[in-house]
Each structure stands twice: as structure tokens, then as C-alpha cells.
TrEMBL record:
<dbReference type="InterPro" id="IPR013249">
    <property type="entry name" value="RNA_pol_sigma70_r4_t2"/>
</dbReference>
<dbReference type="InterPro" id="IPR036388">
    <property type="entry name" value="WH-like_DNA-bd_sf"/>
</dbReference>
<feature type="domain" description="DhaK">
    <location>
        <begin position="362"/>
        <end position="685"/>
    </location>
</feature>
<dbReference type="InterPro" id="IPR037171">
    <property type="entry name" value="NagB/RpiA_transferase-like"/>
</dbReference>
<dbReference type="InterPro" id="IPR050861">
    <property type="entry name" value="Dihydroxyacetone_Kinase"/>
</dbReference>
<dbReference type="GO" id="GO:0006352">
    <property type="term" value="P:DNA-templated transcription initiation"/>
</dbReference>
<dbReference type="GO" id="GO:0019563">
    <property type="term" value="P:glycerol catabolic process"/>
</dbReference>
<dbReference type="Pfam" id="PF02733">
    <property type="entry name" value="Dak1"/>
</dbReference>
<dbReference type="Pfam" id="PF08281">
    <property type="entry name" value="Sigma70_r4_2"/>
</dbReference>
<protein>
    <submittedName>
        <fullName>Dihydroxyacetone kinase, N-terminal domain</fullName>
    </submittedName>
</protein>
<dbReference type="InterPro" id="IPR007324">
    <property type="entry name" value="Sugar-bd_dom_put"/>
</dbReference>
<keyword id="KW-0808">Transferase</keyword>
<dbReference type="GO" id="GO:0016987">
    <property type="term" value="F:sigma factor activity"/>
</dbReference>
<keyword id="KW-0418">Kinase</keyword>
<dbReference type="Pfam" id="PF04198">
    <property type="entry name" value="Sugar-bind"/>
</dbReference>
<dbReference type="InterPro" id="IPR013324">
    <property type="entry name" value="RNA_pol_sigma_r3/r4-like"/>
</dbReference>
<dbReference type="GO" id="GO:0005829">
    <property type="term" value="C:cytosol"/>
</dbReference>
Amino acid sequence: MGQPRKRVSKESRSGRAPLRFGDDPLLWASWLYYQEGLTQGEIADELGISRPTVNSYLADARAKGIVNISISEARLRAVTIAQALEAQFGLESCLVVPGEGGPRPLIDRLGAAAAQSLGSHLHSGDTVAITWGRTMLALAEAVSGTEARDLVVVQATGGTTATIPYTPEACATRLAENTGARFVPISAPAIVSSSEAREILLREPVIAEQLAQLDRVTCVLFGISSMRPDATIHTSGFFDSALKNKGYFDNAVGAMMGRFIDAQGAAIPSPLDDRVMGMELDRLRQVPRRILVAGGLDKVPPILAALRGGFVSTLITDATTGEGILRAEGFEPEKIAPKRRAPTPSEPALTRSDHVKKFINRPKDAVDEALTGALAAFPEHIEPIGGSLRAIRARADKRDGKVGVVIGGGAGHEPGFIGFVGRGLADAVVVGNVFASPPPDRILSCTRDADQGAGVLYIYGNYTGDVMNFDMAADMAAAEGIEARTILTTDDIASAGADERAARRGTAGNIFVFKVAGAAAARMLPLDECERLARKANAACYTIGAALEPSSMPDTGRRSFSLGPDDMEFGVGVHGEPGVSRIPLQSADRIVDRIVDRIFDEMRPGEGGKLAVLVNSLGGTPMMELFILNRRLMQRLSARSVDVHTTLLGHYFTSLDMVGASITLMALDEELAGLLDDPCNGFAWMKQGR
């Protein structure tokens, strides 16, 4: 049993909180009630105040925004009407709030529900378009921050009369302010006086640049207007009533973005079409996330038309409106209920053997046989040194006075290490057992072969065994009169904090460091300069990896660590080292966002900056999925107006058969970019001369 609660002394019952609670009793009352689960009576005892005072504190905390209560989006989606609307119209999601209850107007309740749901709809790097109207302004004002970064908010249309508070400018500005986004206005009226005036405006560079943002929109928040006389389409000055008198809109049931639609969602042609400045309806259909927020019985026909026309992927409405939409589709009240699937016999759980099948002979021969196969496949690039399979050199002419570059580490990262030996890259590579450091004598063999009288650079990942053995080899080389200097690669930002860069692991960023050092040596730069440039390249690289399935070792044929079927390892190392966290499996876009956000926090690339990019398979991830990751990565970099100078994508630095990927971003200046542009000829990276 727990200890009995200690009651406060009478001395503390003075009408104010004890000193240990500081000067903010509202905060502490809220914490004790919502986080600790105390009753109001128990809080009164803790704070030395009366129970009515506790009740008053809790109410004040809500009013002042200290406490924000949100309702589970999953619950709102689970409402019967929401499920029926999703099924009927093929929606990705539908949120339904109560049609009645509470003092707030329906518009405010819809705005609050939409604002709460934005967390699942807005993603880092999004360009968000928002229309205008009462509901859109309520939505924008209800938003209180977002975890998404690098957002751009753009008006979906030009401006309207300033006599209303819910103009396109007001809605977009407020949304941008409350999400920390960059705001892009449309510096033109929503409807201009003539098609000729529109053509003139479209030729204005500033307006053309603003409208071009609409082609980048990934999420659109929009309302819809009915055709009632008091609807916003009439009161805003947006609508040309003279055209209505001529019968152009007799069949219209609603309007979106200044365009009118009929009951089936088809656009109604009119003379306004050539006068509207904003997003076209065909473009609206192409936006990945199209969130319609609207409610009220007068909105049933236009919402239904928008649904039929394929303009909506997510609908946020109220129960009364939702029921009206379903009734208009022929649903009977008693049929507006989820269909219950008949119970089925339980199926046996799928099982996966812990043993992984491999194309190997004897496990102890796997590394040597793999190297034999590589030497046979690429004889024009690599050859053994002195008959050793574990010490390999480039088949490229070595000029006297050239700095030698020696790289290496454990096997299992192929084409890592051996694929980056050649002209303009490393001169020699030393290979250890799987995920194990090569011994000093082999490192020394490579050092001797690479030395052309100007010294040698060792470049390898920051791992204890590698450091020890390469240091021993450097001492042995020094005894022979060969100067060897070491560059430890430390690009894996998941392995240590920014203030502990020297403690980080070396991962796929190795590839860029090999290239820069090899190019510098090929230019016949002295050892000091080659070392400086290699260190500069390493400091410019930032990498994070994520694993969906662990790798398996050749000697055991079993997984190197356990990972649940619905989990992923974020920040995993290339030897299967634990990552930053084990999190639920996420979509490709969200994985990229998590990686990029973490890198951006430290790297902070500015607008107009230049980067090199590596989207790297950790072994078991196919090119198709790497292309999907790269697609999102380019969207995020484009949102920051970053210049991608070099992109590598594929198997570059693997972890055997791990199902996963890593992303490396390298910050470039002209010096580093020029070295990346120099020609090279390794079997894993071939680049023609400029």
C-alpha cells in the first residue's frame, strides 16, 4: 500500500499557494488535476485553499490558455456519420463535430476542429494554400503552432474587398503567423475588371512569381459558399451580380475559389473564368491533401457537389450537415450506421524464421570469396597488393610527389571502401572481417604502396578498433620514414551531440570525404592542404539512418538485433548500433521529415545554400523506395530554396542486408563543390571530367 497523503499544516491555509508551488497557483492546480489525477478536494489540501477556489483556478487556467483540452481525432473520425461519409465518397478522412451544443457558433467549432486536426495534415516543407471566409478565418485563428517546419502559406486567390474581416489576406496572414510559416500574398484582386487586365497582371514578374507558388501547393484548406443571398460570395464583393441576372449561374449550387459548380461538381463556364486570379479547379484536384471545412444545412448542396466532383480528400463538418449530405445521397436514417463484419475464425499469426537465407558457402570464407569476386568483376579498377585479398590498390598511375590516400574498415558495407578506390579517389583500401577492423600489418602494406614521397592520409570511420589499428600502422610507417596523418569521419549526428562531434561515428558521409581527399591529392596538393580539405569535407557532412529490419550476420544467419513488426530504429548505426529512438513505423515522407528536421536543427542551411546529397540504401532497400525518399527530400530542400549541386542515390555504404536507408547532406562552398566535380574512376563512383 502507498503512503498516506501528507496533509498541509494549518499555517499554509492562508489563501495562497505554499512557497514550493511558486507564484502561479493556476499552473499548479492545473498540473495536479490534469497530470497527476488528484481530485479537487486533494488539490485544495495540497495548496491550502478551498475547493471552490480550486474550481475557479481550473476555469481560469482554461480561459487563459494554460490548459488546452483536445479531443482525439481518431474518436471524431470514429463517429458513425464520419465513417459513412468516408465510405460513400472515398475520403481519406472525415471529422464530425456535434451539430448543436455550447454557446460558440458552428463556424468557430468547425474552425477549432480543423485547427486541431492540422497536426496530422501539415508536414514539414509543405506549401499550404488557404481560401477565405468566416470559417477559414476561424480556423486560422484557432491554430496554435505546429511541429511542421519550413512551411509556406499562400493565398489561394487574390484579394477581396477590405470591408469584410475574413479576406484572403487576413486568413492567410493569420495562418502563417500561427504556424510560423513564410507568407506569400497574391498582390492582385481575386476578380479583375477584364480578361485583358488579367493578362497584363500575369505578365508582372512579382505577381507571376506569387502565382507560381500555387503549383507547389501540397495542402489546401478551403471553404465553400452556398448561393444564398447572404452568403459570403455575395457579401464580399467577389461576385459580379450582373452576370447572375443574365442566368450564367442558374444551375450553380456553390462556389469555391471564385469558381462555380453545379450539383455534380462540374465547373460552370462563365465570363468570370478569364478574370479570376487564383487556383484553378483542375489544379485543386491535383493537390495531395484537400481539406474542406464547412457546415450548416445551407452548405449541404455545395459540399455534396464538391464531394461528387472529387475536390475533397478530407471533410470536416458537423453531424447535422453530415447527416443531411448522406440523406441527399439516399441514405435512410437507420442505414447511417457502420456495417458490422461477421466474425471470422481467428487466423494463425504469421511467423518469420529468425534464420536468414544467404548466398554463401562457408561463413568463414564469405569475405575472401566476396573480395575475389569483386577483383574479378572490376580488374580495370582494383588489384591485390602482394597477392593479399585484404589489401587492395587502385589500378591507376601514381605520380611522384602525390599524396597517398588509404581508406578502410570492416567488410559488410559493400560497395563501401573497395568501390571508392581509383583515379581521383583513394589509392588503396584495407579490408577487415565483417564489421571488424583490419589489422595493422595490412594497413602498413597499403601505406607503403600508396606512398609516393609526399605522405599518406588515412581516412576511416571513428570506431575504437579502427583507431587503434590505424594508429599502430601510422607508428610503424613513421619508423620507415612515411608520414601518415589520420582523418576520422564523424558524420553520424545521431551518435553524439553537436558539442561532441569528435565522438560521432563515421557512416555514409565517408563517401564525400573520400572523394574530396582523392580529388585534392589528384591535383597534386601538398599533404597539409589535402588534410585541411578532408577535414573540411568531414565537418560539412551530416548523416542519419533509419532501419525497418535489422541486418543478419553471415556466420550466424540470424538477425543482429530484434525489431518489432510495427517498429523502426531511428538513428541506427551501420553496424546495427542502437539509434536515437525506437518508434512506430511511419510513412516514407514522415521518415524523411524526421531525418531532415534533425539535420536542419544542426546544419541550418540557408536560402540559396548549396548541398551535396546522398540517399543511401543500408543493403536491403531497393532503388524504388530510395526514389520515393529522394522525392520527399527534394521537396524539403526546395522549400528552403537550397541548390542541390550533387545527388548520389543507391547502394554506397551498406550494413549487409539491413532494410533501411540513410540520408547525408553535405554543405558546399565553391572549394568543396569544385573537388566533388573533379573526375574520378572507382567502380562505385565514376565521374567524367568537366
